[in-house]
Amino acid sequence: AGAVAPLTALFVTMLALTNYCLRHVDVSFYQILRSLVIPFNIAIGFAVFGHLPSANASLCCVVVMVGFLLGSVSELNFSQEGFIFGVLSSVTVALYSVSVKKVLPVVAGDTWRLMHYTTMLGLLMLAPAIFFTGEWSGAVASGKLSSPWFWLAMSMTAVVGFLINIAYFALIKFGSPLSTHVTGCTKSALQTVLSILIFGNRVSFMNCVGIGLTLVGSALFSLERYLERQRAEHAVARSDGNGPR
């Protein structure tokens, strides 16, 4: 648990910075700041693990990042405080994913065990903040704590959040922090596509171009990663004398 405590503190910090950012800017501007996670992740991954993605994979990341930027552009309300919190949030998100990759061997690669540790430690760290920030008194004054619908919504949110974190850890375990963030950009683009198809949300031409670039860049990134694994496997097979001579 001691090795997981710094990871949990980083997670709590990430949540706080994200919420403070959204308090000062709209979602569109937050999404643009969030695209900075990819270059931060590459830099932090190099500092921690000492390796960089290939030139082709890096180019795909640039396509994804540009597409994500264009897909998020709308009428933006700039805020200096929101910008600072957003950049810091992107740094902590990148740090968190790299830290998860580094801490996983401590728990023998068990994502469920890591999830239990971070959940329990997170509760201990966040509980005092509920009282210091005045959220507890506000919740009591609202009268919602006695509503069964409130607890049903909170329970459903907790279950979904738990499953999302398990999937997040599994993506990092079997892939890489960078692949996880590229996947996150793809998810956001697909969410926008579904909102257009289901709810008829209006988007600009620039947004459509950005969504297309994100999806194409993500597909090319996945293909490049697959080819890299194939080349690595062939290289190992040849070194063992089992490959073609």
Layout: helices, strands, pairs:
Elements lengths: L4 H20 L2 H8 L2 H13 L5 H18 L7 H24 L7 H22 L2 H8 L5 H27 L2 H23 L5 H35 L6
Helix pairs in contact: 1-5, 1-6, 2-4, 3-5, 3-9, 4-9, 4-10, 6-8, 9-10
CA gyration radius, whole angstroms? 20 Å
- Tell me the series of helices and strands, N- to C-terminal: HHHHHHHHHH
Structural class: mainly alpha
Q: Compute the number of strand runs.
A: 0
Mean pLDDT across all amino acids:
84
Structure report:
This protein has helices at residues 5-24, 27-34, 37-49, 55-72, 80-103, 111-132, 135-142, 148-174, 177-199, 205-239. The chain is globular and about 70 Å long. The model has no long low-confidence stretch (mean pLDDT 84). The protein starts with a helix and ends in a 6-residue tail after the last helix. The relative contact order is 0.15. It is mostly helical.
Descriptive keywords:
globular; single chain; 245 residues; mainly alpha; 81% helix
Summarize the structure.
The chain is 81% helix and 0% strand. By secondary structure, it is mostly helical. The mean pLDDT is 84.
